[in-house]
Amino acid sequence: MEIQSVIEKLKVRGFEPFYFESRDEAIDKIIEIVGKDKTIGFGGSMTVNELDLMDILENEGNKIYSHSKVSPEERDHVYQLAQSANFYISSTNALTEQGEFVNIDGTGNRVTTFTFGVKNVIFVLGTNKIVPNVTKAIDRIRNYASPKNCQRLHKNTPCAVTGRCENCNSDDCICNTTVISHHPTSKQDHVYVIIINEELGY
């Protein structure tokens, strides 16, 4: 996988990609893009957590909307606030070498927000999430990322036990909707892509 080729294909598709060898450089770039006194919605993301982005950007003087920081009763309200924020920051489940983002959601708050709700989106990912094509992306999500997330979230799904997708119909299923993003949507002003040469998240 040639990272420069991925970068060029993202540019052709209308995304705004940046590649960094270190997380510190990437975090500095995100701070620069966002600035201060902004509202920022966050999707559930181990990558974001590993980079400590919520605390870093909050300390820069921004207002954070994250369902992970509130009680279950407050989540629906926070989802709505995140959808109307100045920025939305999330990782992605997979990025293809052709420059397409593939994401599978349980609730749908993440995919609806970064496709329609927010005008400025920042995807943050490690190089471990880059795969050859959409087929490999879906396989990676269903048979690697989703089982790990179900285990982490203590979901009652077959994959939480077996570590592999069982195409279940469980009420706890987190693979309820699949979105492939080929280009930024007409509702978006900027979709920044921050790629870090590290293994981050699932």
SSE layout and pairings?
Layout: H1 3-13, E1 16-20, H2 23-34, E2 39-42, H3 46-51, H4 53-59, E3 63-66, H5 75-83, E4 87-90, E5 94-96, E6 101-105, H6 109-117, E7 120-126, E8 130-131, H7 134-152, H8 158-162, E9 177-181, E10 190-196
Parallel strand pairs: 1-10, 2-3, 2-4, 4-7, 5-8, 7-10
Antiparallel strand pairs: 5-6, 6-9
Oligomer: single chain
CATH level-1 class: Alpha Beta
Q: Main β-sheet: number of strands, strand sense, barrel status? A: 6 strands, parallel
End-to-end separation: 19 Å
> How many separate helices?
8
- Give the DSSP E fraction (strand runs of 2 or more residues): 15-25%
Helix content: 25-40%
Number of strands: 10
User: Any low-confidence stretches, pLDDT <50, length ≥5?
Assistant: none
Integer tally of domains: 1
Order of helices and strands: HEHEHHEHEEEHEEHHEE
Structural class: alpha/beta
Strand order of the largest sheet: 1-10-7-4-2-3
